[in-house]
Amino acid sequence: MEQATESTPAESRAGKTLREIFESGRPLTYIRSAEEQRVSRVLREAGQRFFNSTPAPVWTWSVTEGMRGADGEVQPGAQQPREALDFIAAHRDPAIFHLKDFHDALRDSSAIRRRFRDLYDACFDQRKFVVVSSPVRFIPEEVERDLVYLELQLPDLVELIDFLREETAQIIARGGAADESEDTIAQLARTLQGLTLNEARHAVRRALSTTRHLGSDSLPALLEEKRLLVNRSGVVEFVTGKTEIGQVGGLEILKQWLIERKKLFELRDRLSTDIVPKGVLVMGIPGCGKSLCVKAIGSYFDLPLYRIDMIEVFSGRHGPPEGAFVQACKMLEEMAPAVVWFDEIEMGITSAETGGEQGRIFAFFLTWMQEKARGLFVAATANRIDLLPAEMIRKGRFDEVFFVDLPLDEERSEIFKVHLSRRGVDPQRVNIARLVAFANGWTGAEIEQCVVSALTRARLEDREMTEQDLVNIASDIVPLSRTMKEQINHIRGWASERALRASRRPIAR
Ligand SMILES: Nc1ncnc2c1ncn2[C@@H]1O[C@H](COP(=O)(O)OP(=O)(O)OP(=O)(O)O)[C@@H](O)[C@H]1O
Ligand SMILES: [Mg+2]
Asked: Ligand 1 pocket test: which of 253, 291, 292, 421 has the largest number of ligand atoms within 8 Å of its C-beta?
């Protein structure tokens, strides 16, 4: 990411693309975007950079408002599409002309199409640029070769920061309260990343209506609004809520590894590509904390966490799975820096030999892992590891493959403590060692369930929970590892040669 400084404000990605089009001397551009305000803003930015010390004006035309200059004054005699084109052709000075929804006029009249093509010569080398914006892609065949076609990606941080500066200034001008400090604006911009500019504006307005003030205290409202907007896509879910790494009991090796990777990840723009952490694959026994670890990575890396639901991808509700998957990955590229969580990845990515859709998704995923933005850290989780193809596990795709086994004695003790303290029970009050012995072969989820059930029972009887409540519940629990002994042994055997244990090995006695 480029750093903004006082003298040279950072250039947005969209602004840069347009500036480069201007520099290449192409006079006609077609931008597909429903966000006209954003197109205007990007045009101003690109224009300022391209024309440098003497910025050219940006004229705006629409069928309802006619042709207006940068000052908002209406130009007489340029209301009709044909008149607007004539005006541009005759204009003597450098300028940018933004034609809103001009696709209608191009569709309806061959004379307009002809006149539009004339503009190519009329503007070429004159430092005059015509930019059509429209929410749809409609380009008649005869003008196709004269045009540069562009689809705006989601706004990047530079654009969002710029937008927020303007928004806060407007709020203050209206007599409202807003925190204008650079730190707060950058923090708000990071929160809005992943939204279109219209959505961001909407989110800011919603937040204002609850907090009456735009600043760090608006973050929860903005996060909630973003969660709703992102989740509308159905395939990508924005996971909110903090999960401290301390909430994960045990798994010391995995936690230590993450601490080291965090450091490297933060230096990613200064490191060579092969050292920048790409991601981690966590496999293992259900209920032992795979999902919990991924949530902790998001919080610990202090980055937003997005979860790709492979079941949704394959549901058919979002079109062919391959298309839905590719689109989700592309959307995530726009969200960097972020942690991306592929949950139950084996649902989609089984062996390429099966061919067809799954094989193609797998091939795409492998390439994407190599080429994705530096700012994306991938965390994939899997239960049915034996379904995953060997290429996936091979070193190089992920930085490490971890195996999460049933928790060891010490880990069960930690997990009990985590869940008791989280629910306001002082772990000192109970004999943890006794519980740990009871809980031999339990998963973390079963330990949590034991604590919750004991608390529920006590609450129903309107009294404090006692150690005996825990013991009573514990003796009723039949752990998964007993009912699924064979499957667990199978997973263990398979993982032992292919993955690194997430826990410290028990000391041999
Ligand atoms: N190591 C652990 N430390 C603390 N809590 C744990 C641990 N492992 C599991 N839990 C508890 O059990 C719950 C379920 O664990 P989690 O969802 O992470 O399991 P999982 O490995 O992802 O299982 P699945 O394969 O079913 O998705 C967690 O929300 C957490 O409360
Ligand atoms: Mg899980």
From this structure: 292
pLDDT tens for each residue of 431-452 = 999 999 999 999 999 999 999 9
Handedness of CA 263, 267, 272, 273 (dihedral sign): positive
For position 52, what pLDDT does the model report? 84
253 assigned to some structural domain:
yes
Closest ligand 1 atom to Cα of 250: 1
196-209 pLDDT tens trace: 999 999 999 988 88
Query: Is residue 488 in some structural domain?
Result: no
Q: Tell me the β-bridge partners of 317.
A: 319
Site residues for ligand 1, CB cut-off 6 Å: 248-251, 286-292, 383, 415, 418, 444-445, 448
Beta carbons of 48 and 55 less than 8 angstroms apart: yes
Digit-coded pLDDT (tens) for 336-379:
889 999 998 887 766 545 557 777 888 888 889 988 888 999 99
Tell me which residue of 417, 344, 354 sits closest to 382, measured CA to CA: 344
For 396-424, b where at least 16 C-beta lie within 10 A, e where not — what string?
ebbbbbbbbbbbbebbbbbbbbbbbeeee
The 400-404 sheet, strands edge to edge:
236-239, 305-309, 338-343, 376-382, 279-284, 400-404, 500-501
CA 505 to ligand 1 center in whole angstroms: 20
- What is the per-residue pLDDT for 163? 94
Residue at 138 is within a domain: yes
Specify the pLDDT at position 331.
85
Mean pLDDT of the chain: 90
User: Taking a C-beta distance cutoff of 8 angstroms, is the pair 181, 59 a contact?
Assistant: no
Helix (H, G, I), strand (E, B) or coil at 439: coil
Q: How confident is the model at residue 20 (pLDDT cuts 50, 70, 90)?
A: very high
CATH number of the CATH domain containing 215: 1.10.8
343 alpha carbon, closest ligand: 2
| Atom from ligand 1 closest to the CA of residue 404 | 21
Atom 30 in ligand 1: residue holding the nearest Cα:
445
Number of domains observed in the structure of the chain: 4
**Would residue 369 count as lying in a domain?**
yes
The ligand minimizing its distance to the Cα of 406 is: 1
**Above 50 in pLDDT, residue 396?**
yes
What percent helix, strand, coil does the chain show, rounded to 5?
50, 15, 35
Q: Which residue's C-alpha comes closest to atom 16 of ligand 1?
A: 289
Give 144 Cα–ligand 1 centroid separation in angstroms. 55
Is the same domain home to 413 and 399?
Answer: no
Which of 248, 255, 280, 288 for mutating ligand 1's site (highest number of atoms within 8 Å of CB)? Answer: 288
Residue nearest to atom 13 of ligand 1 (CA): 445
Give the distance (Å) from ligand 2 centre to CA of residue 283: 10
The mean pLDDT of 251-270, rounded to a whole number, is 93
pLDDT at site 5? 45
